[in-house]
Specification:
The complex is a heterotrimer of chains A (331), B (428) and C (356).
Chain A (H helix, E strand, L loop, with lengths): L6 E5 H15 L3 E5 L15 H9 E3 L4 H13 L3 E5 L10 H8 L2 H4 L9 E6 L15 H4 L5 E3 L4 H13 L4 E6 L7 E5 L11 E4 L4 E5 L3 H14 L4 E5 L2 E3 L3 H11 L2 E4 L8 H13 L8 E3 L12 H4 L3 H13 L1
Parallel strand pairs in A: 2-3, 2-4, 4-5, 5-7, 6-7, 10-11, 10-13, 13-14
Antiparallel strand pairs in A: 1-8, 6-12, 9-11
Chain B lengths: L1 E4 L9 E7 L6 E2 L4 E6 L4 E5 L4 E6 L6 E3 L3 E6 L5 H20 L4 H14 L19 H9 L18 H17 L17 E4 L2 H14 L4 E9 L1 H12 L6 H15 L5 E4 L4 E4 L5 E7 L2 E3 L2 E2 L7 H16 L5 H4 L4 E5 L19 E14 L5 E14 L5 H16 L10
Helix pairs in contact in B: 3-4, 7-8, 7-10
Chain C lengths: L6 E2 L19 H26 L13 H9 L6 E3 L5 H7 L3 H8 L13 E2 L9 H15 L5 E6 L6 H13 L3 E7 L2 E2 L2 E2 H4 L16 E5 L3 H16 L5 E6 L18 H10 L2 H12 L4 H23 L7 H5 L7 H14 L5
Parallel strand pairs in C: 1-8, 2-3, 2-4, 4-5, 5-9, 8-9
Antiparallel strand pairs in C: 6-7
Helix pairs in contact in C: 1-2, 1-3, 1-10, 1-11, 2-3, 2-8, 4-11, 5-6
The chains are: A alpha/beta (331), B alpha+beta (428), C alpha/beta (356).
């Protein structure tokens, strides 16, 4: 039987709204909490129109209190709800860090599965939109290091919707990182209604045999741009969008690195203890003998994300990525 | 002239709708006076005038959606201070470009690609031969190749799953060196695999071939060269006794095989085959050791595969199994083919002190372990002690190897058997 | 609670003096000084919004409507006191003596913007809500230990009282009797969330009860009342009586920042009405008019003066040298670690066009 799937053209932020809309409709347990998500529709308009549609109980403007509402969402999750919490910027998540680290991520283990925390924490992250200081953090590694929480980071509208629905349906806590730089930069056909993209699976966004370029979130377009430029020079890159940062899709990395033997990892976070190092560990574990050159990392620096007057310097650019690709090619 | 542009006024917005113009063409406006109302998905906002002047031209229409960076309207400044204003405007535009750079935009990228194209020429990447086969090699092995300026992709691997080992690289380097001074021929071709996987080869050309010719000429009726050695196995017997007390049984032959494999690693020329047609001596990294077993039907030679990768215990168990299969006539073709070197342990048969064993064609050498006898031995400090001495004979193809090499090889073998604990040094 | 914490006022919205205790302040010179300062920061605020719309600075947080709270409180400070502003308090910072150029640089994404003028104790604007409250408690406590009479003022909004840091900071300060004034500008909206959804308490001042410290509710659009109550609180602080919580009731006319649109979440006609009725600047004009002291020429003079000062700062900001990428690396540690040294070297080499 042939079924037709209706699609619509959406930006990434609209796809996220669509995912929440879909799930609010699908499951009465889904409840949104956050600062300014109601009438204002969120500082990035990610919840635009949802309070109007579903009411103030299901789309709640919380007090300005990250520890408070993340903690409360844990309580609600334990007691039958599926909370989707919005943190306005990842840089403002830290008051709730204790709640996530000591409670959300380990309640299942502490109670041997009796209490579980099926919640999603959404947080826009990253630099590149000339936002004020501390609005630009990319501290995903603080959370991938945290046992008991999955970390997801889409870069395209289609993946954003599918992954957010998967995250809402996931029985465990998921940190859902939204690259604010990609919120409105691209549009894509997104299916109507419910579908999921599996958590823990990366995606090949470009095919090539010479170099594997691994990125996520806002760095995917940067990696793709660099790869396109290199293609003109005869170097063909496999570009992987990891999409999930915990657990990382090791198979897609191994498959590609064993083919190319050369890898460039791109992330905007600080290099020390960055997720790039976990990617490197996977390459070491799975593909040691295939390596033709030392893996290059193109990252931010071990400095706080600077004010936006400096962010062009801090953020990896296609040019920096190309430089790294050339370096591994010439090794 | 001042171009009034739409900027990213909303942290990541890319476009806006033009709602209404708040001025008319010809209006005189002051700096910071509102000019036009725009609507983004985040807000409605008024865009003010950057400079005082007269509204000259609208470049977009109400209702239109324009992207960040678009010029919305033009203001013409009052005649006084024109130069200053133009300067300001350039600066302003620059500021705007700076802003655009934060996003992945076309302008930005084009600039980048031209820069890179200018600085780097194609074809300077290390992969000269593109789309080559996948190579398995440790970074250290790759370094050896790099240090010797050889392309590792031209070397075939003899290790597990075709992994290139350090020895493969050295053998390849050696092969290139052998070949270089005599004949200036391009790198050797791979020989079709004779056994299981691709092998390393040494060109059987040049000096080596000259030697071979001579050898064959002078010794063609006796291509074999055999030489004898005495090996003190007292320590080995004692060691086996110790293990026996711990209920561990390892046959002497297993030790011989292990010792042999270690010696072969150091003298790969004896684990080889000569292919005259291809003008190559093929070095084989796998040590598939055939064991000559005497059965009712006659001599049969089951093969222990990959002795170089196996522990003594594994070798012992496999040998036992193969010997049993041989005696019960259960060996398969697989069990008896593929050998790269052969041993004959004639000791248990109460055999001779020496013999001239026949090399298994097309292998290069064969070693026979003969009967062990207790013999008085004069020690270094002139004491006479009783030691267990075993005779060993080795036959080899004189076209391939020289006598001196064979002596070095058997010396090494003897050393390893005389001091069984030295095997420990070779543990990987 | 509203009875227990009455709104303190010196001058009502019509420009009438309603509290005769402060008559010493109600002089032409004093009123004109307050007026001048408020005009100055309002001109700055409007210019900054305009600059943002023109793409000449980044996201900006306007404070128009809150001038009396910021000017009145900042003028009450001694020159060497500590100030802990939020991102919306650069009006107070300007009044206290911060550099306009630096404030503009801050909004244009430059670290230089956080550097106070020599001799001024001004903390960088608190960006994550309420995080500066414990800092102020600590800095003030340090002055107490050192035995000085310096005090600290800490600004924060109504939404900040929901954060844990608010409780922890006030509790700490009250325990050690730190010489600090917790100056809350209750503009009644945390971005889009009205105070009724923010807290169940009727007032913010009443929260002082929990720490057993003075809690004062003041008309935040009455610059005289703000000045007087802040001064009193600072005196108590310097006398070793510990912290005070001041709630200044006010209103922001515009958006939370230039990145949002208040029409989305509230009826802006209320802002319009408040502008007519309770505006802090118009209030002083009414007093001056009542006294026959209002001089339109003088007003346009001070407006012009403010405008020139600000244009000069804008021009200094725009002519400021380009961001030096070395700055990213040089101020992370006193002595850079090898990691940062290496990253700096590699990056500078990269942008220098050299290949490493």
């Amino acid at each position: 039987m042939k079924t037709t799937v209706e699609t619509k053209t959406l930006t990434l932020v609209q796809a996220i709204t669509d995912a929440m809309d879909t799930m609010l409709q699908e499951k009465k347990e889904v409840i949104l909490l956050g600062e300014d998500i109601g009438k204002n529709g969120g500082v990035f308009r990610a919840t635009d129109g949802l309070q109007e549609k579903y009411g103030e109980t299901r789309v709640m403007d919380t007090p300005l209190s990250e520890a408070g509402f993340v903690g409360a969402a844990i309580g609600m999750a334990v007691n039958g709800f599926l909370p989707v919490v919005e943190i306005q910027f990842l840089g403002f998540i830290y008051p709730s860090y204790e709640q996530i680290m000591t409670h959300a991520s380990r309640l299942r283990m502490r109670t041997m599965g009796h209490y579980t925390v099926p919640m999603v924490i959404r947080a826009p992250y990253g630099a590149g939109v000339r936002a004020p200081e501390i609005h630009c953090d990319s501290t995903e590694a603080l959370f991938t290091h945290m046992p008991g929480i999955k970390v997801v980071c889409p870069s395209s509208p289609y993946d954003a919707k599918g992954l957010l629905i998967a995250a809402i349906e996931d029985p465990d806590p998921v940190l859902f990182l939204e690259p604010m730089r990609c919120y409105r930069s691209e549009r894509e056909e997104v299916p109507e209604g419910k579908y999921t993209v599996e958590i823990g699976k990366g995606k090949k966004v470009m095919e090539g045999e010479d170099v594997t370029v691994i990125a996520w979130g806002a760095m995917v377009p940067v990696a793709v741009k660099a790869a396109q430029n290199m293609k003109e020079k005869g170097v063909h890159c496999d570009v992987i969008d990891l999409r999930t940062l915990y657990p990382i899709d090791k198979d897609i990395i191994a498959e590609s690195v064993q083919k190319t033997g050369r890898t460039v990892i791109v992330h905007e976070a600080h290099p020390t203890t960055g997720v790039g190092n976990d990617v490197l560990a996977i390459i070491n574990d799975t593909s040691f003998l295939y390596q033709k050159a030392p893996t290059e990392k193109v990252t931010g620096f071990d400095t706080p994300v600077p004010y936006f007057g400096f962010e062009d310097h801090f953020l990896p650019t296609p040019k920096r990525v190309m430089h790294a690709i050339e370096k591994v090619m010439k090794f | 002239m001042v171009e009034v542009k739409l900027h990213d006024i909303g942290e990541g917005m890319t476009e806006a709708d033009i709602n209404t113009f708040l001025v008319n063409i010809g209006d005189r406006v002051k700096a910071d006076d509102p000019l036009v109302e725009v609507q983004t998905d985040k807000m409605t906002a008024e865009i003010p005038a950057p400079k005082s002047g007269v509204v000259k031209q609208f470049l977009v229409q109400p209702g239109e959606t324009v992207t960040v960076g678009t010029t919305i309207l033009i203001i013409e400044e009052s005649s006084s201070g024109d130069t200053h204003q133009i300067q300001e405007n350039t600066k302003f535009t620059k500021n705007h470009q700076h802003q655009d750079n934060t996003a992945v935009t076309n302008v930005h990228q084009t600039q980048e690609s031209t820069t890179v194209t200018r600085t780097h020429q194609p074809n300077e990447y290390s992969t000269v031969a593109k789309k080559t086969k996948r190579i398995l090699a440790s970074p250290y092995t790759r370094k050896i190749a790099r240090d010797h300026q050889v392309n590792i992709e031209l070397i075939s691997g003899s290790g597990v799953a075709g992994r290139i080992t350090d020895e493969d690289v050295y053998a390849y380097i050696q092969s290139l060196e052998t070949q270089k001074p005599i004949e200036n021929i391009k790198p050797i071709k791979e020989t079709p695999p004779l056994i299981t996987t691709k092998k390393n080869t040494i060109p059987f050309r040049g000096r080596r071939k000259q030697i071979a010719k001579k050898m064959t000429q002078s010794l063609y009726t006796i291509p074999h060269c055999t030489h004898f050695e005495e090996i003190d196995v007292t320590n080995l017997i004692q060691f086996r006794q110790e293990l026996k007390e711990k209920k561990i049984q390892i046959s002497a032959t297993a030790y011989f095989i292990k010792a042999l494999s270690i010696a072969l690693k150091e003298f790969p020329i004896f684990n080889a085959r000569l292919n005259e047609d291809q003008e190559e001596i093929e070095l084989i990294s796998e040590h598939h050791i055939g064991i000559a077993v005497d059965t009712e039907e006659g001599l049969i030679v089951p093969v222990i595969k990959h002795a170089e990768q196996k522990s003594l215990k594994q070798i012992h168990l496999e040998m036992k199994e193969l010997t049993e299969k041989a005696l019960n006539d259960q060996l398969t073709v697989k069990d008896i083919t593929g050998g790269t070197f052969t041993i004959s342990n004639v000791g248990p048969l109460g055999g001779s002190l020496g013999a001239t064993p026949i090399i298994q064609h097309p292998q290069v050498a064969l070693v026979s372990f003969h009967k062990t006898k207790k013999m008085p031995v004069v020690t270094d400090d002139d004491q006479i002690v009783i030691r267990s001495i075993m005779n060993v004979s080795m036959s080899f193809d004189h076209r391939v190897a020289d006598g001196a090499t064979a002596v070095k090889f058997t010396n090494r073998l003897a050393e390893l058997i005389q001091n069984p604990k030295m095997l420990l040094l070779e543990l990987v | 609670m509203k009875q227990q914490f009455p709104i303190q006022q010196v001058m009502d919205a019509n420009g009438n003096i309603v509290n005769q205790e402060c008559n010493h302040l109600v002089t032409e010179k004093q009123i004109k000084d307050f007026y001048h300062q408020m005009i100055r920061i309002r001109v700055f605020d409007r210019k900054a919004v305009s600059l943002q719309r023109q793409g000449r600075i980044g996201t900006y947080a306007p404070f128009e409507g809150q001038e009396a709270s910021q000017v009145g409180s900042a003028l009450a400070l001694s020159h060497d006191d500590w100030m802990f502003p939020t991102y919306r308090d650069h009006g107070a910072a300007m009044t206290f003596g911060h550099s306009l150029k630096n404030i503009l640089l801050f909004w244009n994404g430059r670290n230089e913007g956080c550097v106070p003028p020599e001799g001024k104790n001004i903390f960088p604007p608190g960006i994550p809500i309420a995080t500066q409250i414990p800092h102020a408690a600590g800095a003030a406590y340090a002055e107490k230990i050192k035995g000085t009479t310096k005090a600290a003022i800490c600004y924060f909004g109504d939404g900040a009282t929901s954060e844990g840091d608010f409780h922890e900071g006030l509790n700490f300060a009250s325990v050690v009797k730190a010489p600090v004034v917790f100056f809350n500008q209750n503009n009644q909206y945390a971005i889009s969330v009205p105070i009724q959804k923010q807290m169940n308490s009727e007032t913010i001042a009443q929260k002082a009860l929990a720490y057993d410290i003075p809690g004062v509710r003041v008309d935040g659009n009455d610059v005289l009342a703000v000045y007087v109550e802040t001064l009193k609180a600072l005196e108590r602080a310097r006398n070793g009586e510990g912290p005070t919580l001041i709630e200044a009731l006010t209103w922001r006319y515009g958006a939370h920042t230039t990145a949002d649109d208040p029409n989305k979440y509230r009826n802006q006609s209320e802002s319009h009405e408040r502008r007519q009725e309770t505006d802090p600047i118009i209030r002083l004009e009414r007093w001056m008019k009542n006294q026959g002291l209002f001089d339109e020429k003088w007003v346009s003079e001070i407006e012009q003066q403010a405008s020139e000062e600000i244009e000069k700062a804008v021009s200094e900001m725009e002519q400021f040298p380009e961001a030096n990428p070395a700055d990213i690396f040089d101020y992370v540690f006193a002595e850079p670690t090898w990691t940062i040294e290496q990253q700096k070297k590699d990056y500078l080499q990269f942008i220098g066009g050299e290949k490493s």
